[in-house]
Amino acid sequence: MATLIRRRETYYARWWEGGKEHWKALSPNKLVAQQKLLDIGKAQKSRRYGDPVEAREITWTELAEKFLGYCQTNMAQATRERNAIVLANFNKAILIHRLSELTAELLEEFKVIRRNAGIMPSTINREITVLRQAAALGKQWNYSTSDLGMVKKLPVPKKRPVFFTQEELQIMVQKADPFWRTVVFLGYHAGLRLGEMLHLEWQDVDFEKEQLRITPRNGWNPKDGEPREIDLHPSLADHLKAWKPLCQDHGRVVPWDRKTHQFSMMFSSHLRRCGIAKGSLHTLRHSFASHLAMADVNLVKIARLMGHSDISTTQIYAHLQPSSLKEAVRRLVPINQAMPISSNGTPQV
Question: Greater confidence, 48 or 28?
């Protein structure tokens, strides 16, 4: 039997089924949560005794609102904002009235529309993933949905990471005000992601131990949920010491109270002012890893600095390492005492 449990501002349902423990976020409102708990109990009973529960119809607008509410509770701010943009893009391209109208055929049509609009395959794949997530939640909530399992992602060729040169980084710093100079330093000298920059607090900057700490916050976790420490590069340390008095009224190193996608857009504007036609904010992080690889830093160390849970993610920088495979093989100690070979190809004893 499911029980109602409150954690912080949200009520959850907790129950055991099939030998596994299940948790589900319900609502911040207790009455709404209690009603949803009853629905879970009914669904449990129907699964146990074979009494099928008829799926209900829901409008696409209502489902989208419920999905974004779910995102608000369970996802990071940047992910929530991106998902909202995906739904808006879909609504501009395709008109549907009910969730059940979201079919595999319709998603294929959406893929064609977006591709013809010049959208990159990787972006379209993310959009399809979000739409399938929304439909999957609708099915979990017992709303009538179509099978979207046959919708395939577009092939995305693996590309080597784009990174900024030392000259481009110098131009960025020279033409930036102190705020954007801080962003460039954090991206290049520490390899921080956007979310990590925006959630970095001054208490995470340890000038004495010369370290930055990436730690979870209330409502935010680093990607892969792993906290980590990054040694403070001397240039970054000097800049942060000069920057701190300018924003000492803020707890965060990069004070920003607008949408995260606006942050990325404004940095792209800075790149254009610098005459740099490639890259984005995330390219600073690629530059951090790429320049470390070119300095022949071990990929395992780069993975730890980047916060990669799987070193295969870091392998995209392997081609930049000056230590080639050929050089690696030549490090083997030679065997000088080789056996003489007879004319018939057998070793002579």
Answer: 28
> Where a domain ends, among 106, 123, 140?
140
User: Both 131 and 254 in a single domain?
Assistant: no
- pLDDT digit string, tens, across residues 217-276: 887 888 876 789 999 999 999 999 999 998 877 889 999 988 888 999 999 999 999 999
Is the model more confident about 344 or about 83? 83
Q: Summarize the confidence of residues 9-33 as an average pLDDT.
A: 83
| Dist CA 157 CA 152 (whole Å) | 15
- Domain membership of residue 337 (yes or no) is no
Instruction: Give the structural domain span for 322.
Output: 166-327
Does residue 117 register a pLDDT over 90?
A: yes
Q: 29 and 123 share a domain?
A: no
